[in-house]
Write a structure and sequence with these properties.
It is a single chain. This protein has about 90 residues and is of the alpha+beta class. The chain has a single domain (about 5-85), classed as Ribosomal protein S6/Translation elongation factor EF1B (Alpha-Beta Plaits, 2-Layer Sandwich). It has helices at about 20-30, 65-70; strands at about 5-10, 35-45, 50-60, 75-85. It has a four-stranded antiparallel β-sheet, covered by helices on one side. The longest helix has 12 residues, at about 20-30.
């Protein structure tokens, strides 16, 4: 099996949440689970910011769901969306 490149977006519960805290927590929580290629803040609308991640995950059943669950468990995270994925 190969690897899967996945683009995810993390939206905070509200616009007042510190996006840098969510970004740091995401970086820490993903250590050992996947390879983090890119982590950036993305402007959404009206002051709302999101964290956009580009990660490489082993192509195994349940791995993407596991990463989504890990990110959803971060304090202050309202929603985690998988925007794109492709085999590497």
């Amino acid at each position: 099996m190969g690897d899967v490149a996945v683009v995810m977006r993390i939206l905070p519960e509200d616009a007042d949440r510190d996006i840098n805290t969510i970004m740091s927590a995401a970086r820490e929580k993903l250590k050992g689970k996947c390879t983090l290629n890119k982590l950036e803040v993305q402007e959404v609308a009206f002051g709302l910011k999101a964290v956009r991640l580009e990660i490489i995950i082993p192509d195994e059943e349940g791995k993407i769901d596991s990463v989504e669950a890990t990110l959803s468990g971060i304090e202050g995270v309202g929603q985690v969306d998988t925007e794109d994925m492709t085999l590497v």
